[in-house]
Amino acid sequence: MRPKVPEPSLERLILYQRLLRRLKAQGVRVISSEEMGNLLGLKPSQIRKDLSFLGEMGKRGVGYGVEELLSRVEEFLLDSEVHRLAIVGVGNIGSALATYRGLQGRDHRLVALFDSDPAKVGRRYGDLEVLPVDRLEEEVSRLGVDVLILCTPAEAVEPLVARARSCGVRGILCFAPTDLVAPPGMAMQRVDVSSELRKLLFAMRELKGS
């Protein structure tokens, strides 16, 4: 049974995946937790603790084989199920995500776009055409969508989550500023750029005062 991973460790494992892909492309064959820590600004002990969720690997005094470690991290992170994603709201953020290659992965695929604005319905982004949000339940069920990416005003989130739940959606990635809690049987992650910016500015202030 896969161990339960705390969210901060999961976020760092995704960070390690990105670093290891870059190192592999550069031809790096072996790396230590100390070297990873220097590159990422993390403590080596924290990196070793995070990697312990993947099982035994690496050699004391030698480090980790980059290719093997990347394979183990990706195996751990990737889902055996292919998730189908849909974006609701193709304004500035939604339209940018509609052409973002990161939404076409090995275990996830963007399959639908929706908007409530008649002026945006019918626009094409790659192979996908923007559909009216009135058809959300119909198309989500037909396409087997299980993740909605909400790029809508905050007031639209709660009714959309209720509609999504009624047709089998299990995950919500929300770009709207909302404190809505996911209902039972659903998972929700929020992307709040203003909060992340506030944390960055605070960290910069701390550096200035040190």
CATH class of the largest domain: Alpha Beta
Q: What CATH architecture of the largest domain would you give?
A: 3-Layer(aba) Sandwich
Shape: globular
Helix- and strand-based class? alpha/beta
Note the beta-strand portion: 15-25%
Uncertain segments are none
Mean pLDDT level: 90
- Radius of gyration of CA atoms, rounded to a whole number: 20 Å
The CATH homologous superfamily of the largest domain corresponds to: NAD(P)-binding Rossmann-like Domain
Instruction: State the strand order across the main sheet.
Output: 5-6-4-3-7-8-9
Q: Please outline the major beta sheet.
A: 7 strands, mixed
Q: Fill in the CATH topology of the largest domain.
A: Rossmann fold
Q: How many helical stretches?
A: 8
Number of domains: 2
Order of helical and strand elements:
HEHHEHEHEEEHEHEEH
End-to-end separation: 45 Å
Helix content: 40-55%
Number of strands: 9
